Each structure stands twice: as C-alpha cells, then as structure tokens.
Recover the amino acids of this structure.
C-alpha cells in the first residue's frame, strides 16, 4: 500500500528525515511518499505556526494527485489540521500525536511526552484531549530546544534525558517523543532510560497500515462528513496598495 | 477605543451584519471596524473550513495596519485561530464562542448552544473545552440549517426554537446562539422562550471593552508568548504545471 | 446605571476600600453603592464565616430599598451566597470569584489564585467549580496572611510574590487576587511579575455592566427561580433562660 | 452515645419525624436528640433557603449546651452548612446527603437521587460533588412536590415511583431519598421497585456511630481547622427607621 | 511472528472462531495460535465469570511453553486479567477491549460499544476507563443476547442493529463489537449501518503486530514490573470432607 | 450478626491479624469469622497476585457453608474480586479499600492513601475510581515495604511517617492505611501526625454492620444480578503429558 506522510512545515530536510523514519517503521509492501507543504512556516513552534501549518498541509493534500494512496500520516506533533484532513480525504488519516499516545497506552499505565519548547505544551495537551487519549498522560515536558536546534545530537540527548526524568517523577512509565523526525534519538533514550520510547511517526505508519488492512475508513456519519461544496480561496490575492477587507 | 471585529469567512455581507451587531452592543466611545479575510471559505461549516479560516483570519490580522486598535473580536463561532491571534497581537483577543459561554455561566446553572449544522457540534465542544468554559454546557444542538440558509427568517426561527427545546430538556437554563450575525434572532428567541439568549458578538465586544478598560493584556508568560521570528509563507504560490512538495 | 457592591463582612473600612476599587474600575455613567451587612463576621476566613456571611449578605440585599439599582456585585472571594442572591433579585448578580476567573481565562491558558489563608483554598476551589470556571485553574495558593493583616503593605507584597511564584510553577500564566479590596496590590504585583493580575472587584463590576448593557438577566427557568413564598425568620428571637430548639 | 440530629428548617413537626427515623435506625445505646433552629426558613427549597438555613443551623449548634454529645447529623438534604459545622464542632459531623450516597455506592454501580422540587437538583448535585461522592450518581430527579406537600402519602408515593423509573432508565441501580423524614416512604418504594432505597437520615446516624466507635474525628489539619477567634454577630439587630449598612 | 490469542472461557468452539477472525486480520508472516484456558467459565458474562476467567487465563499463559511467541492477544471483551498478563509476560499484551477503542478513536469523534447482556456494560466501561480510552465512548449498549445465543445469526443481526441505532443517537460515529468471535457480523453491520464497525480481535492482532514490529515492549518501570517471586497456588486442592480456609 | 472477613492471600497469620483488627472494631453482638483462601498467592503485591487472589477468594466464598452470615468484608487493599462477590452473595459485601475512603471523606476535604510497594498504586487508584470514591483522593503513596516486611515495627512506622508527609504535602488532611492487618500502626501514626488515620478493616466492618442494620442489600437490578447458571470449573484438571488448550 502507499502512505503519504505530510510534514507540517516547509523544510524539506525535515520531510526527508521523517520519510526515513517512516520507511524504517513501515511493513513490507508499504511505500512511503513524503509531502512538503508549498507554503506555511519553516518550522511549527506555537499556535500561530500551527494554524498556518494546518491550512498549508490541507492545501498540499487537496492538491496531491501524483499517485493513488491508501492512507495519510500527518507528521506534525501537536499541530492542527487532523480533523480537516479526515473530512477532506476518503482514506484513513493518522496524526503522529495521537498515534504515539495510542501505542504508549498499551505499554504502561501512564505515559509522558517530551517535546521541544515549553510553549508547545498547551497545543499538545489539547491535541491529546481532542483525540481522546489524554487520560493516561502524566506530563508534557519541554526541553527548551527549538525544532531547528535539534541538529546538535549530544545537547539534544542530554536535554531529552533531563526532561524524561521529570516525566518519570510525574508518573510516566512510557515516553513519547513529542516531535517528528528523531528516530535516532528514540533508540538512544530507550537504552539510557530503560523505558519504552514511542516515536509518533513509526506509530502512525503502523496504525495507518492497520486501518487499511482491516478495511476501516473514517466515519462519514457525523463530524467528519465530506466538506460541503462551496467557494474556497486557498491563496491571497495579489495586494495592490491598500489592504482588502473592510 | 477601537475594536476590530474579524469575520471568519470571505462573505462581506456577513461582515456587515456582524459589525451591525457589534455596534449595537458596544459602549459609548467604542468604534467597531470590521475585517473580512481576503481569502478562505465563503462560510465556515466544518473542520476543513475552520482550519482554512484560521490561517486566512490570522493573515488578515497580521496585515491590518489602517489604524491603531485596542482589541480584537473573532466572530467565527467554534472556529479555530483564537490562540494564534493571542500570540500574534499585543492587544486582547476575545472569541465569540468563549465570550458567549462566559456570560451564559453568570445567568444560569447550565447553558445550551444552538448552532447551524450538526456537523459543527464537535468543533464547538472542543472550542468550549479548550477555552475552559465547557463544564456548564448542557448540550450543543444543531438546527440542520447551513450558514447561508439563515436568510429565511421564519424558517430559521422555527428551527432554532425546536433546537432550543432540546437544549432545555438537556438541562439548559440559558441559551447561546452558536453562530455570528443573528442579533435579531436573539431577541425573538428570548421573547418566545422566556430564557436569556446570549449572542457571542455582543458578549465578545463587551468582554473586550472590559479587558481594555481594566488595562489587562494577554499573558506572554507561557503558551501565548510572541511568535518566534522565522520564515513564514502565508499564501499558496501560483501553480504552474506539476505540484510542488515531494 | 447603579451597581450595589456588597461586602461579605461587617467591617466598613473594607467596604469603603472595595467601593474605591469598584469606582476606579467602573465605566462612565456607573454609580457604585457599597453595602455592609448589619451582622455576620468581621472578616470571612473559613467555612463557618462563609455560611454566616451568606445569610447576612442576603438579609442586607433583601432589605435594601434606598434606590433602584441595576446589578449586584458580591465582593467576598470564595464566599457563599451567590446562588441565593440570584434567586432573590431580578437584576444580574456577579460574584468576584467567578468574575476574576472568567476574565483570567481570556488572558492565558491557565490561571492561579493567590489568597490569604491556606484554609480558604477549599472554599475557593469549590466556588470556582460550582461557577463552571475551575477547568483552567492551575492552583489556589495561600499566603498565610489573614484578611485583617493585609494592612502591612510591604509584608503583604512579599507574601503575594512568593505565592505567585508557586502558582507560576504550577502552570499559571495569569494571576487572580483571591481577596477583595486590594486594587493597589494588583498593580504592584503586575509590574514585578510581568504577568497579568486580575482583581475580582474590577472584573465583576465590568461583567455586571456588560450584562446590564446587553439586557441580560438571570434565568428563571430552573435553578434560579424566584424563592417560594413562605415564612422565613431572619434573626434569632430574644433568648430568655434556656435555649430554644428542641 | 448521644447524636444530635439537626433539622434544617424551623418546622418542629419535621424535626420530630426526622428524630423518629433516626431512632429507628440507631444502634442500641445511641440516644438521639433533635434540634430545630430558632430561626430560618419553615422549609428549605432552593438556594436562598439553603443559605439562610445554614446560618440558622450553625447558630443552633454553637448555642447547644444542654448535654454533651458525640456526633451531629445534619438532616437537610442538599442544604449548606456541613463544612462550617465541621470547623465549629469537635465531634464528627455527617450530612444526610453525603451519607446516603456513601452507602448507596456500596449497593450498586450507580445510584439515583429522587427529590422534591426540580429546583433543588442543582444544590444536590453540588453537595454530592463537594462531598466527593458524585461520581456514581446517575441522575438527580425531581418529583415536583414541595417539602410541605409530602403529607399526602398516596400522591407522594406515585410521584416518587414515577421519578424512580426515570432514575432507573438513567442507569440507577440504587435509589436515594432526596429529603428528610420519609422513613415510611423508603419501605414502600423498596418493595414496589425491587431496588434498595437509602434514606439519608438512617445512613447518617449509622455513619456517625461508626466514626465515634472507631475514635475518628474531623481533621484539623487543613480546611476544617477551628474557626479563628473574632467578632461575629449572629443575628440581625432590631431595625428602627433606615436600613443600616452603607 | 507468532501471536498467541487467548480465549477467556473454556469453550473451544469459541476459541476456534476467534482464531479464524485473528487469522483473517493478521498480516503476512504472522502465525496465530489459539489458547483455551483449562478451567474457568464456559462463557464470561458478569463480574464473577470475569474474575474466574482472569485467573484461568493467566494460569494458561504461565503454563504455555509449546513454542516461543512474540505477543499475546487477550480475547475477552471487558474481561479482567490484562494487567496481570503484562506483569507476567515479556512480550506485548493487547486486550481486544482497548484495541477496538484505540482504532475507533481514529475513525470518528465518538464511538459506541455494542455488547451482549446489559449486565456487562459496567465491566466494559471500567475496562475502557482503566485502559485510558473511555473519553470518546458515547455509549455501551446491550443487545440482551447471551454469549451462547449468538448462534442464531438473523436474531443476532437484528438485535445488534437495534443497539447500534441507540448508540448512534447517543453520539456514536463508529461502532465497536463488544464481544469476540463475530467477524461475520462486523461486515453485515457495517454494510447496513454505513458506519465503520471495529472488531476487537482484528484490532488487537494488528496492534500487537505493530508493537512487535516497532520493537516496543511493556514498561517494567512502574506498575507492570515483573511479579515478585513467592509461593502461589494456582488451583484448588481436592476437597475431602470439611472445607479448608479457617 | 455474623460478618465473614476474607483475607486476600493464603497466609493464615495475616488472616488472624485481620480478624483481631476486625473484632476490635466490631460493635457488640457482632461475631467475626476469618476466611483464608485455600489457594492463591501468599501475599498480594501487584496485578498478577490480585487477579489470582480474586478467583481464590471467590472460590472460598462460594464454598463457605459452615454457618449462616450477614455480610462479608473483603480484606485485600486494592485487590480485585469485590464486584464478583456482590454478584455471588445475597448479603452485603464491603471491600476495605472503598470502606476506608468512604469514612475518610467524612473527616477532611482530601485524603491520602499510604501503601506498601509503589507498584500497588495503580491498582489502588483504579479500585478507588471504580468504587466511586476517588474524587477526594489527593495521593496514593508507597513506602517501599513489601507486605511480608511489615513485621519490623520501627522500620514500618518510619516508612509510613515519611510517606504520610508526602501525602500531606499533596493535600491530604486524612490518611488511609493502604493495607490490611495494621491496627497497631494506625494508632501510632495518628498520634505522631495529628491527623485522623483510617484503617480499612475497621471501616469495612462498621459499614457492613450499618448496611445489615438498615436492611440494605446489594441491588440485583443491573450490574450485580445473580450469576447466570452455567458450567464453571474452579480448578485446573490434573495434567497428564501435554498441556491442554489448543
């Protein structure tokens, strides 16, 4: 089957890293295609970026017509857009935030999320709640690192280990990596912590495969009915002189 | 003071109706300016529209430089974008969804929301929850009418009365109008139901005035810190031939 | 319009301080009248005082007939009586506990309440819950100061700053002053903390003005129906010899 | 041991009925003394009555010095005052609302409360919540009867049977009688419904006996510390001419 | 990989049916082995059966040594034993109750569970709650059929359709089959209802495969640490004359 | 009346200690009979032990026919089996976990549970939740001691005092002893902490006496209906050669 994995930002290097992680997690016979939004933020850190990212990702998905595909994985941890994609597409949509939490619940009584900036905690808490998997989340802990600082591996590892310890004290028995494209980090942390560490990208790929294999699709009976036909403009008109809108 | 009231869709007639309602609610000395996004959906009905609307409204707000203003009212009931606007702007931001609920809590033990399509219920429930005011919501009831069908006043009134009865049975003692630009309806319903009916636009204008008058601004200590400086593209490029993104 | 602001205790100096705060917050054209119960506790600190205060405040309200008024603000933080006043009166009733929380929710993701004695925390938690605004309360922190110790400004400020720090660590992005008549303190704390600080008296006055301006009144459809006509004795008979009651 | 059972209103006939119920439930060696407040409402139906009742009951308790006693049962279903009495007294205090719920939880997965007027539902819900026993309450159902209408036994029984059916549909497996002094009714309902029916007065007497027998007393470490010494006026002054308080 | 699927009762025909369902859901390269407890109830319907089943299933698992295996699926819907198996085994354990709920959350905003007897609802609610996936459960509805009555396909289908309608009215957008070994029914219901229907056995097999493929194992850091070494007797002694135990 | 108190493990010395505690708490005219399961774990520490214990205790109860009895107390703190016993027996069943919490709620605003091993915290939290009394639990704290280490009184006392301090910091005003057979410890802790300390065995005996005295029995209308007649095997068949089950 083919799974399209969408990055939530415009940084293609990150899309490639996410695709690598997705491929290493995918089952035999699954093809992974990466999708980078043509517009939006270069990294998603905070609510403004998240709202911008959601529209850009949906624009990319609605325009994607290269090849047929069987499911979509949305690879922005704690970012918006999940529900809109479920309305838009006829294939299953799995977001890495919820995916990591679903698997974490199977591995221990409480899980903790380790993310980049503290400012992202609120979005992640809301995303877990609206996905129905917040009940066993013991804590969402920030490392203080920005998405684009994750290059420095040693510093990143130390920061995540420190945050993991705070999550453990808060009751976490399992850890969730609260950002995309860090498959390497997952292994290092697992070894050093003696706790399972769940990466959302891998979890989402496997859950998407499971839904497809079981013939399950998003329900159209209720909140995720198909979008109503209407006029939608996805890009700003060229601005001349004064700003439109009044 | 000046309050900018943003419509969540591109239909200017609706902006004008919202502005009328806002002006009729505003205190002496308050100037209301309407803002219509330059792109986005012509009406917001569902998650896809909501995510698209959020980015378009934020784009309109970041670009708005006509005159200085003291607060922003976001006039999309149950739509996304509220938190992004709080990050973006240095003035208070009040969303009509939360505003109506805040005032409703002061008028009775439980309130009910009457909205247009059933499909919007989930977004409204999530929006009330993430705003911290869901606890006393007894029910969110749909009328089955689309936003653009609200023109037919008699049909609209009957549909809202029927939905109001369902909310009352569910425990509501106060009603919230779950959509913008229906000031007239509010009065009719109130008279026929013998219950207070809260319109979000009026509520938000008064709450915004209150915050400004008390010198209160959005906290920057935490989730609503200023957006980080970075490269953000706010609009889809004109597409020639193949789609970008892989 | 005229707003009657009721103190929850019999100390007139505190009524005057509360009235000063209310007047500094009120809009143009609003007249503030203070009301001090003729009986009850000299300060409300704990459940016993709160229950006594509730009856005394209701007795004062039912007997108040000087001039017509448009709304009532109940200025006891965490004290009982709010719902009884809503039954008793035909004008909107706003309690400073809920009022501060309502505005705080508009300014940050989580708020914290700083109050006087630790023993009051339970009442405040219950009052926020029963008002429907507890969801975003990160912590209620006591300073260890009694209501009547608040005179010593320097000591008070230091105690509140220490408590504010604990609230911030618990996740608060906005602070609520958990007692009445401390408008000065609000400003000092705001400057030193770099966080918005909400004073319940000002918040309640503005919310009461908003309800009146929008023509909204307490719902009579349910819990706050008018009190049933019956024999009620509001004061103890003169006691001669043995205690009555068996 | 001696248990003082306080009525929440001034109607002595009701105190006597409550005392009869308490005596029929009490263990050997327990003496029941009834206490009727010297002031307050003739029946408690709604928030205003409840707040008035709380102060009057506390006034009666603080003045009660006839004989030493070992525990207090507060016999107002859903009425205020419980926490104040715990502060005031050195003996255990059990309220019939919480008592009935505690025992009901031991008899089935969910319980339902059947009360008099619908308007009392909110108070009962809040009282169960603040007592920590609301989680298994499936419904609080009103019969539409006032406290003083309960004389007509046949009508009362039919009204309670109808309400019980609604509670059963809502998931109740056990019923709680949501008012005091109806021991007879409890038996009739139990037989006709084939479900256990818990009377709060009997439950509270047995729980009070249990606490005394186990040597357990209210914790002073926290919310129920002894009231602070201060000036408290428990009664309205005789009014001459103008109303005091400004 | 090899997955051991345990029936919760001693009826081998049911084990075989469950194994058929598991095999039809399993991925290529997965071998399914069925395990039937040597003792316990012939069907699990209620708490007593569930507690008996849990011990018998754990006894079967601890004694299972035929071949190495990679994961265990526990195929009793709403039955106990899940956490004990996680302590006991070094491979991932997935229970069909939680598994169905996890996948259902990915397909719609709210899901409903349709089970056999009404008496099982409480166990299922508790099992979903303790697994951390109850938040989006709109209703657990019983069909009134016993486990062993499920043979009559037409009657079963009608009963499930009627229950499904009740779940839909309660807000369910996705259905979960609340019992094992009904793969056929799943397809029929899905077609007739136009809603996704999740079978727990298939869901659990896919989730177990996912955990194994991702190298994730139950956390030993906390609640699921290995059982302490001690004397455990797994079976009642043969009884001669008087009963042991006092 | 006669109350049967069941130990959750096979260690008779512990049964005797529990019986001593039960007798010291029982009212005049109550006879306590201890029951030790004929099989199961020698101590219950963790989920596996708990599931094994539940079946063994139910087996002991169903076989108990010495003398008639009026109620059962289940003396395993946080162990399973409570609901199965309610189905099985026609007399009231009270579990010491819930019993201690019910009485603790009457003594302070929040209670804390002090137990042996940290690994037991999850079971206790779940048991309090499913019993409907978790709302006021401030914390469940482990001492790090195993059930069979409780012999060393001095070490045990110090460990419990340290844990109690952690519970107090978390908001506990009342303590619950999270294990059976420690009546002595209860007194020592109470004196040293100045807080009420509730022992589950004593609490359960008094609650059981109360239910019996009030003529209250487990509801058969719903979750606790009588077990359905069917074939149940309570012990493993003698194994010859290969293991049964496939």
């Amino acid at each position: 089957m083919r799974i399209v994995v969408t990055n939530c930002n415009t940084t293609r290097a990150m899309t490639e890293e996410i695709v690598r992680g997705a491929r290493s997690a995918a089952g035999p016979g699954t093809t992974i295609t990466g999708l980078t939004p043509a517009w939006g933020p270069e990294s998603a850190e905070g609510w403004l970026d998240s709202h911008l990212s959601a529209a850009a990702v949906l624009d990319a998905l609605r325009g994607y017509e290269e090849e047929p595909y069987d499911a979509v994985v949305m690879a922005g941890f704690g970012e918006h857009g999940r529900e809109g994609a479920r309305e838009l597409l006829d294939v299953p949509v799995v977001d890495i935030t919820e995916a990591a939490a679903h698997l974490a619940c199977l591995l221990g009584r409480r899980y903790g999320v380790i993310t980049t900036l503290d400012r992202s905690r609120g979005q992640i808490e809301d995303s877990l709640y609206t996905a129905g998997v917040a009940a066993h989340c013991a804590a969402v802990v920030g490392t203080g690192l920005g998405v684009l600082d994750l290059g420095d591996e040693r510093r990143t590892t130390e920061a995540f280990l420190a945050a993991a310890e705070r999550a453990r004290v808060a009751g976490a028995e399992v850890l969730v990596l609260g950002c995309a494209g860090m498959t390497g980090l997952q292994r290092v942390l697992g070894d050093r912590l003696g706790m399972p560490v769940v990466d959302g990208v891998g979890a989402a790929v496997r859950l998407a495969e499971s839904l497809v294999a079981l013939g399950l699709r998003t329900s159209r009976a209720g909140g995720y009915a198909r979008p109503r036909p209407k006029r939608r403009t996805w890009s700003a008109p060229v601005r001349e002189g004064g700003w439109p809108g009044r």
